[in-house]
From TrEMBL:
N-terminal signal peptide: none
HAMAP family: Smg (MF_00598)
Gene: smg
Pfam families from the UniProt entry: DUF494
Record family assignment: Belongs to the Smg family.
InterPro entries given in the database record: Smg
The protein's name: Protein Smg homolog
Domain of life: Bacteria
Length: 152
């Protein structure tokens, strides 16, 4: 599934440029992906887009501190929570995007979650909302797909 998500990020400038689900599925099969991983990835993206419709927008208006629930603490490694905090502190994610990122990470198997996957999920959230982010934060996130960033 994660390879399909990475492929979507690389192939399409944003979610709006993706073809409909049937055409996209055919395109992904032609690119060499298996049907089950395509369906899983597209279901995940579909849920991402349905949650992007404003469910977490109230978080942008809050001036409180984010406290993780027990389930989130157990499901999300310390390094992943640190990355999410780093992204928010450096204007990479809004509070609403943070909540959506946490929501999408919580939907994944606990054993799969690591910092690189969290970077991919954050990128998917930003991609689905056509958000821009600071260049150095973007380089850090893209490292999850392309390898370590290089400063020039």
């Amino acid at each position: 599934m994660f390879d399909v998500l990475s492929y979507l990020l690389e192939e399409y400038s944003d979610l709006e440029t993706c073809p409909d689900r049937d055409d996209l599925s055919r395109h992904l099969v032609a690119a060499g992906f298996e049907d089950d991983e395509i369906d899983e990835a597209l279901d995940w993206v579909e849920h991402l887009t349905s949650e992007s419709s404003g469910v977490f927008d109230g978080a942008n208006d809050a001036s409180s501190m984010r406290v993780y629930s027990r389930g989130e603490l157990e499901h999300l490694p310390t390094e992943v929570r640190g990355l999410i905090q780093f992204l928010e502190d450096n204007s990479g994610l809004t509070p609403a995007q943070r909540e959506l990122t946490i929501d999408r990470l919580m939907a994944l198997p606990e054993d799969d979650i690591d910092v690189d996957l969290a970077k991919l999920v954050a990128l998917m959230v930003l991609w689905s909302q056509q958000s821009e982010l600071p260049i150095l934060v973007g380089e850090e996130l893209l490292a999850a797909i392309h390898g370590e960033p290089t400063m020039q």
